[in-house]
Each structure stands twice: as C-alpha cells, then as structure tokens.
Amino acid sequence: MTTFAVRTRVALCSALALAALPLTASAATDPLARFHEQRLDWKSCVTGPDDTTGKELEEAGAKCADVTVPLDYADPGGRTITVAISRIRGTDSAHRIGALLLNGGGPGGATIGDPPWIRGELKEVAGRYDVVGVDPRFVGRSTPLDCKWPTGTSIWGAPSPFDAGFARDLAALCRKNAGDVLPYVTTRNTARDMDVIRAALGERKVSYLGYSYGSYLGEVYATMFPARVDRMVLDGVIDPAHYSPRLLRPTESANRAALEDWAAWTATRHATYRLGATSAAVLKAVDRIRAAATRAPLPVGPYRVDERVVPLVLFTGLSQDNDQAYGELARAVGDLARAAQGGPVEPSPALAETLRFVLTGEESSYGSVQSAILCGDVPAERDPEVYRRDIERGRLTDPLLTPVTRNIGPCAFWAAPREAPTAVRDDFPALLVNATGDPRTTYAGALAQRRNWPSSRLITLAGPAQHAVFGVYGNACADDGVRAYLASGRLPAGDVTCRP
Hints:
Blueprint: H1 33-36, H2 52-59, E1 63-70, E2 80-88, E3 98-103, H3 115-122, E4 129-134, H4 164-178, H5 187-200, E5 206-211, H6 213-224, E6 229-235, H7 252-267, H8 270-273, H9 279-295, E7 298-300, E8 303-305, H10 310-316, H11 323-340, H12 349-359, H13 364-377, H14 384-395, H15 402-405, E9 431-435, H16 443-452, E10 457-461, H17 476-488, E11 496-498
Parallel strand pairs: 3-4, 3-5, 5-6, 6-9, 9-10, 10-11
Antiparallel strand pairs: 1-2, 2-4, 7-8
Helix pairs in contact: 5-6, 7-9, 9-11
C-alpha cells in the first residue's frame, strides 16, 4: 500500500487447525460460548530466524496469540480454524479506552504486523488502546489458503486483455486445492471472527480502524454487531452498493487522472528519468512501450513483458501520491522503455517485485484468498461475452487501463455464495476518511457512504491521487482529526476538508 510495488504476502501452506475447546455451562444460551470464553495463549510473535515481521512486533513489545473460531458458524460444533492476532498493550491504564482492531485491506491483506506503525501514528492517543493486528481467516498466519496459482493476480483476472480460459483454470485450481474451505471464505465470516476476537479479549466493545477493503469489513461488522462497536474509522471508503468481484470497475477515471498526475510529475524530472519534458510526451512514451510489447515481448531480466502485462505494471504503480512511489513507477517505466529499444535491462527492485507477483506463482496465496473473499461475498456475472464486450467498449476511451479494470476473473466460474450479500445498515456514526483523487477506493464511494450513514462524518483530503490517508500520506489535518476522534469518541461537528 505504501509503495509502487504490490505488497507481497508470505504463502504458508499448512493443514487447517482442528483445535477443540471445552464446553461450558453457558453453551446452552450461547452456541459460541466455548469460542467467546476461550483463554488466549500469548507468546512471542517470532516464528523463526527469518521472520522480520515477528521481530518487529517483538521489538515493539507485542505478543501474539491464535484465536480458535468455527470454520462454519452454522455448525459451531464442527471443524475449527485459527485466526492469528498480535497485540501491543496500552500503557495508560487510568484512561484506557479499549482494544483497537486493525484491518489493512486487500481483501486478503495480512495485518498482524501493523500495530507498531499504527501505534506510532496514534502518538499520545496510543497508550489508551490495546492495538490489535489481525490476519483474517485464511490470510497470512491464519490457516492460510493457497490455490496453487501461476500468478498472484486476483481481481484483475487473467494477465491478458481477455482470457476466459485462464480465469476458468484459476477457479478450477481453487476447487482442486482448497475446495473444502472456499464456501467459508467470506467477509461475513471474517466479521463473525472479529466478534469472537472481541469476546476472547474480554472486551464488551471494540474500536476499529480499517483501510480500503477494511472499510467494507467495518461496514459489515457494524451492520452485524452494531452494539459491539465503540469507535470506527474507515479510511479509503468502499460504497457497499458497488462492492463486488468487479470492485475496480468504477475506478477507471480516477486511475486515468492518477496516471496523468504521475506523467506531469515525471515530466518535471525529465533530466532524471528521460521519459519526456511534458506530460503529453511521457504518456506518448508509455504508448510506445505498449506498442512495442504488442509486437514482441520485452525482455526484462528473467521476465518477458507483453501487452498484457504493461497495463498491470502501470496500474499497480498508481495508488500513492508521493515522490517515492512516483519515482519507483518512473524507474519502472524507464526500464520498460529501454527494453522496448532492444537493450538488456535488469528491472529495478519495485518492477522486479511486480513482475514476480504477476508472472509467477510465488504470491499465489495472496491472489487466491483475495478472489475467494470477493467470489464468496457477491456473485459475479458468468457470461464471458459480457466481459469481452465491456472491454471493447472501454478501449474506445482508455485502451491502456480498461482491460485491467474490466477483465474477466475466476469469480465468473465460482460456486454461488452460500449467503446473500450483506445489506449494510442505513446509518452508523463512523469517521470516514478519503482523498478526492484516490484511484482505488474513489471519492464517490466515500460520498455515497456518507449519505448512507448520515450520522457519520467525512474527512476529505483534497487533491492527491492517494489511497489511504491516516498515517500514510502525512497530512496533519487529517491525521489530527482521526486522533482527536479516537481520543474523545466525539465526531467532528461537520465534515472536514484538509489541504495537502
């Protein structure tokens, strides 16, 4: 989320945990009593000598535990799995507020390692909270799911302008390698897990900070367990009415605007990146790269980059509006430009990470669980012709990026969801945060959810093509607004607009 390169996830393949918990007398009135009343075994977060996340957590004073939850909440006496959490205890016991649960988005993003940096961004408020990171079910350390895909892509579908066969094959691999758990990989079950975590922590209520997809998870949790929420911050807000496997379909104009913003930034640094001295020249350089990749794949280190991959490289680079992210994207495009001219090219680290993600199965687990969540939440259009026609229409206005946002994915060949999509409640007092130029969770989504939740308040960061604001972009107005709300529990009197 913080760099051009796709955030990678460690794919750990393990058997599902079958831990049994003792029955209690309260089970007669609470079918989940044995989960709610479980005692957590807090231990070191370090899982081995190469576990950098665990070491960072340990240095920050965090402890980790596994929370046992039902695989199927309709059968709480049946099979169980574990959900991994981390916690940094609050230090200000006299003014303690409670637990602050985190979700970093994705869907399918691991969040267990986030408490140290979130605690740092909370500043003086941090001591009043136990900051809790959660790897959602089947993510990271939480009985991870892996469909054994040849790619880490998911909601982008096939790494091609249109390839229904590839998408069908991805779905078949998931049925083969993880079919027994796929029906239970849903946001509603993740929300139920959150409530088990709340109870196992001994909290009557919890507060919540969710980014990107985490905003949708927060919306679902507030709908299913409204009495269990104390304070809720949703940053990068998804409009639940448009949540579906085609989650990126409404982002096309915002991504095009972000690409043009990056091109203007790059043009002012022509002496460094040599891609053009005007925004138009930089965009023409991109077009030349795509044209060259269409004629023949571009050799970039051990990879071959064709016209199917070039748009993905650009798309993944457009989420953070800062010099570091824009510079990494400019270096990546420079690498592709040199490859298009026929010279040998070793990719920059950020480009190498993206190509590894798209063109190999090293991050199969991330794409697998991301698709499983989206496919398990909302049914997808099943007719491949719908996607093909949609791509052709989109190419009339944006031939570069619409094949990414409109592509067919494995959800077109997935089993129907077991539950209906969540009808998110009509109102809830939450703090919403969004940048107007966000190319992932567009500002229109934040405005729609603000209307849907009239008692909520919206902090707007005006201008940047920035995905995720609090503690990420570095805007004092927005960051201070979030801290003030988490400290007092009082929403601003009205919506707030912050300038970069």
